[in-house]
Amino acid sequence: MNILVALNSCYIKPAKIMLKSLFLNNPGESFTVFLMHSSISEEEIRDLSSYISSQGSRLEEIKTDDSLFADAPVLFHYTKEMYYRLLAHKFLPDSIDRVLYLDCDILVLNPIRKLYDMDMENCLYVAAYHDIPSVKEINKIRLIPYEIKAYHNSGVLLMDLKLHRQYIDENEIYEFVEKNRSKLIMPDQDILNALYAKKIKGVDEKLYNYDARYYNFYKLASGNVWDMEHVIRNTVILHFCGKRKPWKKGYNGKFLSLYKHYEKLAFPA
After folding, report:
1. Rounded CA gap, 75 and 79, in Å?
2. Is the pTM of this model over 0.85?
């Protein structure tokens, strides 16, 4: 299976933890991990490659030059790296038609084969939207006049690269950012939803993009079915969305102990 990550040096440790959970909970599978970056050192690349090889998979480096995005608009604290997942088809090998993008703030708790092999039904992406009523409605209003039935999270994206190469135009993306920069909050995610909402196949967030912040909401809404044991046994992808991250001091979220478990496995004493 093909996995895509995009990061800088600050996220190497979380990436290793995410990858450890992926490898551990997908026994018998092998992965090609495509790393898009512009600034990671050769020493760090060698270390990450060795780490992935030791797990029976391999790393493919895709180093981009800043000049490739010289005309791309940026805003706030977001850098040109925000375009990597949206324009990955320009850099990934033509020989691959499918890739699963994963953010670094993720734990993979169960096998991903069912997601990876899913019939994409001629859609550009498979993604989940977080069905939290207030969040959903705010984002739909914020991105008017674009027709958005659901605001999908861009942290887990199964991509049909063959369709991307045919239909995604980088100039359309740049023009959208220039036109809407005053209303964009999460640029890559806003772009994804505004331009491609009608070509996204939705999947169950509780299975494939469980937002760790909303444990109590999911549990209550499901009539206590989605308790901790049910999440661990059934959720495929657990996502630590938001600014607060489990590798930072002061984090006290519901799944901190689980994250620390995988951190210890990735970095044994």
Report:
1. 7
2. yes
